[in-house]
């Protein structure tokens, strides 16, 4: 059993389709109205049908008042970390502290290369991500001038600022042992997706994060565990994990908290079905909160 005792958070994962802007903004307005905590937006600049994630996040923050927004996860190879740090801090200041930053090492390397980015090996991508975490922290610091000399990223007398409006969560969407070790030492949160990291593998990955955190003198419970989940809330019988009636969703999400260590769930529905998102926000989320509170109590 792995329950870190953290407060629960819930969000949505709208697809940034360029031909569905009004529908996206309706969804995030509903998330804001219904009290969801987060909106996560995937970042694939090479996908021709997608809006630019950072432009969309700015609009989402402008159209909402309380929900927090984050890239799920930012494509580091196409976004220099010093500039991304400034963009993140700017969005946080403009929104009054409602921006978080999740980073990915990169994927779909031929597409990244086609846009002028580096086509990295796994080791190179991991090193670049590790350096980026340090660069971003420096760019959020109170220092007048910062320097950094890495293999992939460099700063030479850069001037940090503006300061974020709050301590932005720096989350990593990673899965390898080396990067999970970095996460345990340096990051504020972990953002896996159920499609890549199903529940049976979670305990071993938590163990690697926790081992690294404790070796660095950190409390593993200080690290947020954000799970991107996908499926369908139906009126019929179960057809698999997170595909079935409301009661199944409540049971399975509750077990993910109490047995699998996750504390935050970001839901993506097929076709961004607004009825699915409404069921998620209005029915599933409060029921999971209640079930976990009862079991913990």
Automatic annotation (TrEMBL):
UniProtKB keywords: Oxidoreductase
Taxonomic superkingdom: Bacteria
Keyword check for Membrane: no
Domain Luciferase-like: 15-236
Pfam family, one: Bac_luciferase
Name used for this protein in its record: LLM class flavin-dependent oxidoreductase
Organism of this sequence: Rhodococcus oryzae
């Amino acid at each position: 059993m792995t329950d870190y005792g953290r407060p629960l958070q819930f969000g949505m994962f709208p697809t940034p389709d360029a031909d569905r802007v009004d529908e996206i903004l309706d969804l995030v307005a509903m998330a804001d109205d219904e009290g969801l905590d987060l909106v996560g937006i995937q970042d694939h600049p090479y996908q021709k049908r997608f809006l630019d994630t950072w432009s969309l996040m700015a609009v989402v923050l402008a159209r909402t008042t309380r929900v927090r927004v984050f890239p799920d996860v930012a494509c580091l190879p196409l976004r220099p970390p010093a500039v991304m740090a400034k963009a993140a801090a700017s969005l946080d200041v403009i929104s009054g502290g409602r921006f978080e930053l999740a980073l990915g090492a990169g994927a779909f390397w031929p597409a990244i290369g086609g846009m002028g980015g580096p086509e990295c090996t796994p080791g190179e991508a991991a090193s670049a991500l590790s350096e980026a975490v340090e660069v971003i922290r420096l760019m959020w610091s109170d220092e007048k001038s910062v320097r950094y000399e890495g293999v992939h990223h460099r700063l030479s007398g850069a001037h940090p600022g503006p300061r974020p409006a709050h301590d932005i969560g720096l989350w990593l969407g990673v899965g390898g042992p080396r990067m999970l070790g970095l996460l345990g030492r340096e990051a504020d949160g972990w953002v896996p997706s159920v499609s890549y990291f199903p529940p049976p593998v979670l305990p071993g990955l938590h163990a690697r994060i926790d081992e690294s955190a404790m070796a660095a003198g950190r409390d593993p419970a200080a690290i947020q565990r954000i799970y991107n989940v996908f499926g369908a809330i139906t009126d019929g019988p179960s057809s698999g994990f997170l595909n079935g009636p409301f009661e199944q969703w409540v049971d399975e999400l509750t077990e993910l908290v109490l047995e699998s260590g996750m504390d935050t769930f970001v839901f993506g529905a097929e076709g961004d079905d607004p009825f699915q998102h409404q069921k998620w926000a209005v029915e599933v989320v409060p029921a999971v909160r209640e079930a976990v509170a009862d079991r913990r109590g």
